[in-house]
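ok so for the tutorial part 2 we go from a plain amino acid sequence to predicted structure tokens. step 1 is just haveing the sequence, like this:
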Amino acid sequence: MKDKIRNIEKASLRIKEAISNDEQIIIYGDSDMDGVTSVVILEEAINNLASILRKNISKIIVAFPDRDKEGYGLNEKALAFLNKKRGDKKSLLILLDCGITNVLEIKKAKQLGFEIIIVDHHKVLDKVPDADIIVNPKHPEDNYYFKDYANAGLTFKLTEELLKENMSSFLRNDFVELVMLATIADMMAEEEENQKWIYEGLANLDKTQRPAILACMQIMNPFNSKRELVNKIISIFNTIKMKDHRIITYDFIKLSDIKEAEKMAQELIKDAEDRQAEIRALTENLKEELKTNQSIIIFEGSKHYRADYLGAVASRLVNYFDKPVFLYAQKKDISRGTVRVPKGIDAVKAMDFCKDSLMMYGGHAPAAGFTIANEKLEEFKDCLIKYFSK
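step 2 — the prediction. this is what the tokens look like for a chain of 390 residues:
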């Protein structure tokens, strides 16, 4: 059994090489809290190391997928955007909280000349992308003892390797605070290092120096417990608002001015309250519509559904009906869906059984997602019923 996650040293050395040679570093992360905090942790660690090494590196390019228009992970539109943005410099593309299921997109990125590091905690499927370096404890060749990190936790372990004795206690506390938020948001197992980081992060929350978190604490006061506060903070990170592949919550968490942070926090809280009202309304409507549903799964979609609230609705329906839930937002030609399943069921295995119907899929056992051509929706539904009937 290894004492380090497979390829974590290799990834660290490659990033140091990119800093030393002033290569164009691109960090591309998922658009949820885990992805955003992963990006912030790695970006700030790289900038810190460059400062310590006295290297004037090019500005790091940061980008996220547009979940409403593009779905999850690396995609052709995002890749075209990054290729145009990077210019002529040698480029290192680091994918965080995504990438492990993007086999075709990684192939295309390699053809465009990107060198690629994947740091992802999602389940590895049959085909593994041809990235230069993959850091994922769930990789079949990884013998590391613990597998269930949030991606922010995995990224933090990479930054520990990257900075080593150069990581100050201030920076470490700041990163652990973000890891705590991501680990709770992604509902990862609260054991091993996850548990330690959650305890540390919650204990140090009163001493936070990050204006975004300070603003939330001030505006959301009073709260009954730090856990309640954290859950409120997490709720505002479910927005899909973005511009030029930059999610608004990334800009929020990077703010250095408390007044600006308070203003943005108010906007995000209002957005979250509106979203919660829509989630409650859709959940109650579906409960009423589905109360006579005899199927062993719930499989519902609409062109009126918004991608950013389907996960919350699906979670509520799983708790209410105790059966697998597949909800999808339907676009012109394709649909993007969210999956939640009862305890003991593996959502990814179910979709793997029906993979011939899907364009893309992936995630964790209890929570996952998929992209599908609309013409394949009924075929996918029938396949899922067949799978769960077993």
